[in-house]
Design goal:
By secondary structure, the protein is of the alpha+beta class. 34% of the residues lie in helices and 27% in strands.
Length: 397
């Protein structure tokens, strides 16, 4: 990449490209400025099992593993990987594409071997980040990138749920969030949501009763009501109260949504919580795994005008919080066997050193392995949050 070109130049050209033409534009730019011979955008599929090439749909290239091989290593480690190819004249640089902590995929660039050095890899990393932001924005105007993520068709309920989600990750100096949902292509009622401000983070995990479209509609109402109350500046307990009223008004208590609401003060680590149903919360501190026991309150929408109360606990730098839906902690195998707290704690411990994204995925993978099945019979949601806390410098931001 020509160092005489201002960094904003490539970004402005990407912004000016039609939404469907981002990959072609990236290829032209990198060919002109780095001598790139081939540029491939690979997006992670909904199940986080493969990376899918973005081409002219419905024709697409062969997917590559999301956790093996050079591209998979770049995606998993979130670091550039330089692949030495069979052709000694070229190398392929694989660059993770992540937008504000949400892992989208990998940009693979084939270059002349003599051109690859540390400085170029750094500049390509900046380019990949810029491309990622444009891909994320382009999703408002084209289906191309959403279609490229699928290895098969989503159910209608799953389509609705994925559109409702904020993403699969979020990162700031104070925290890093990674989340995972299964069955990815047929999810119905499980959801996670978050919103951050200068001084606070609000995080919710919701498990809508039922299956399929019915569960998805219920969860959509619950999440929409919680967002509406949150955006009105209402406190956490009252957010639960208003969502409870909205669901009861619609369904009359016939169905309900179990929800865990958490509100973090970024400067102190104080967490306000409302446990309205079945999601469970665990804290990993050092080598200790403990369930944070919250007062169990009624799920949203079960009865008319249910009052909710907040509780508080504290997180310290280095803590990891794991929130799991009932599809994880209450999962049963075909023969009725319960996953159980012991197996869950073992899975949590085994994923302790993995980054939040991989920890969330591996917990669901552990659940599947425990039952010896690649397909879950109930929705399973896992949200993993690593708490870094706020240093003195960050408090002035």
């Amino acid at each position: 990449m020509n160092t005489s070109e201002p960094a904003a130049s490539a970004e402005s050209l990407l912004r000016a490209a039609p939404p469907h033409a981002l990959v072609a534009t990236a290829g032209h730019l990198l060919a002109e400025r780095t001598g790139a011979q081939e540029v491939t955008l690979l997006l992670a599929d909904y199940g986080l099992t493969v990376l899918q090439p973005v081409t002219h749909l419905p024709h697409t290239g062969e997917p590559v593993p999301a956790h093996d091989g050079p591209a998979g290593r770049a995606f998993t480690t979130q670091a550039p990987v330089v692949e030495v190819t069979r052709d000694p004249a070229t190398e392929v640089v694989h660059l993770p594409i992540t937008v504000r902590g949400d892992r989208l995929g990998v940009l693979s660039v084939r270059l002349p071997s003599h051109a690859v050095d540390a400085a170029l890899v750094l500049r390509l990393g900046d380019f990949a980040t810029a491309l990622g932001h444009e891909v994320d924005t382009a999703g408002r105007d084209t289906d191309l990138y959403l279609q490229a993520r699928r290895t098969r068709r989503l159910t209608l309920a799953a389509e609705m749920q994925w559109q409702l989600l904020p993403g699969r990750g979020c990162a700031r100096q104070e925290y890093v969030i990674g989340a995972h949902l299964e069955p990815a292509y047929a999810i119905g009622g499980d959801n996670f949501d978050w919103s951050t401000s200068a001084d606070h983070l609000t995080l919710t995990v919701t498990d809508g009763m039922g299956q399929g479209i019915d569960a998805s509609l219920l969860t959509s109402l619950a999440v929409g009501a919680l967002r509406n109350a949150r955006r009105a500046g209402i406190g956490l307990a009252d957010q639960a109260c208003l969502a409870d009223q909205a669901i009861y008004a619609q369904y009359g208590g016939k169905v309900y949504a179990s929800t865990l609401l958490l509100h973090f003060a970024l400067d102190s680590g104080t967490v306000h919580a409302v446990d309205a149903g079945s999601p469970q919360l665990f804290r990993l501190r050092g080598m200790t795994i403990e369930q944070i026991e919250l007062e169990a309150q009624l799920p949203l929408g079960m009865f008319e005008e249910t009052p909710y109360e907040e509780q508080t606990f504290h997180v310290e730098p280095g803590d990891r919080l794991i929130a799991v839906s009932s599809g994880v902690h209450g999962a049963r195998s075909a023969d009725g066997g319960l996953f159980g707290e012991r197996a869950l704690r073992q899975t949590l411990g085994a994923a302790r050193l993995a980054p939040p994204h991989e920890a969330a995925r591996s917990i669901v993978a552990g659940l599947m392995e425990h039952f010896g099945s690649r397909h879950l019979t109930a929705d399973a949601a896992v949200v993993c949050l690593d708490w870094n806390g706020r240093g003195i410098d960050a408090r002035s931001l």
